[in-house]
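Appendix B, record 7
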Amino acid sequence: MDILFPPKSATNKRRSSSDFKKANLNLTLRERQVRKLTQEKNSSQILDTAYIYKPSSHLPSTDMNEISTQLTVLKKTFDKQCSEFTKRDSFLCVLKSELDKITAVEKRQAMFKEIKLLEIKSLEDEVEKTKSFQAQEEDNKEIFLHVLDRMRTTIVHLKNQTHSYKLSLHKKSFSLLTEKILVNKTKESRARTANALTRLKSIAETQKNEEKKEVHELEKNVEKRRVASTNRSERRKKQAEIVEKAMIESQSSKLEETREKYFINKLWYSVTSLRFQKEQNNSKKFEDAHLRIKLATGIKDVPLFVEKFLTREKSYREMLISVKEKEAELNKYKDKIERMQKEIEKFSSIPTDVKIDKTSKMTLQRLHKEMRELLEKKSCIMQVYDKVGEWIQRIKNKLIANEADSVFTTEFVMKERETFRENFDDLKAAVIPILKGINRARFIEENKKKDKLKDIIEDLPEHTRVQRRFRRSFDDTELLGLETEPIPDDFVRKIKKN
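Structure tokens (predicted):
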């Protein structure tokens, strides 16, 4: 402490004010150094940064040595005290940390103990509950065992009942199957007889029609040949007469006039002969095509099929024209509907604040009605348009299928269309009245057969008649319904062979 604060000498007391200021600065420096020493607790800094007193009069060497020894002793003692002080502080810190750890461990143990006590209490409660549940379950077990014994007895009783029910059901189902088989057999026999009757009727009618058609064709051919032979004989006679007249009149003065007439007649004869040859060629082509189609398909009514084809072609063209007209009408209706919709949008776009007159309201209602009517018409037209489109598509498919055959193609028909049409017109004029007469005769024959069947059924005795149900179901309406069904070709061929 003497080193830090040395005693003031007489020379220092006599310093001026400037020296006093310097002393104040030194004091502030010393205070800072003391603060560092107290904070860092290191004595080595005392010698490095300590205030060194330099008196004006130098001390003797003996005094300096004594002072140095004292300083070293002081330094050692100060260091020991500082080290002891720091050791105590560190020891105190260690003790504090250990105390904190011990308190934390004690708290944890106390918490753990409380948790364990709570768990023990909950386990005891659960044990008591399980004991009560066990007692209840034992009681329930006895009840269920008793119920199980009762159920076993009831199961045995029910099995016996089900066995008896199954036996009765089996017997009833067997009897029902036998009755169904009998009913089905009766229905099959009834249907077979009805089909046989209808097939026999249709076969007889087809044979009659074929024979009538063959006879009619033969009569036509005979008549055509007779007419052709008479025309030829007349033409030959006329030619002979013309030749005789020419020979006679060649000698006369009117030779030129007769020659002119002769040449005119010759020209007329050549024209008529060319026409006759064309007709013969057309008839030959028609007969050849008829024979080819017969050989290829086995169909005898070829003229009718050709006529149907041509009528279909005409109807197809007419339908195309009608479709175009309907499309134009449809476009008109669409334009009207669009206009109406635009007008309605204009009316609807008017704000609600604006007041509309009664006349405008009436016009708007009228436009709504017209629009609804037009929409209904549009839907009907679209339905018709769709149906027409489907019908045209079917006709196209049929035409494509006919073009696949090498005998009866569209090219062949288009080349010989005029000849076919002429022949078809002749056939129509001859065949239509015959077909009408055949249909009338068929209708009369069917009515007669129905009357005969009714008389026969009424004449039969009651014990030979079938049950009422069968009699009611076997009416003439069933036969009429079966006549419309298509007859298989194999059945017809077998009957023809027999």
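Remarks on this record: The two ends are 161 Å apart (CA to CA). The chain has a mean pLDDT of 70.
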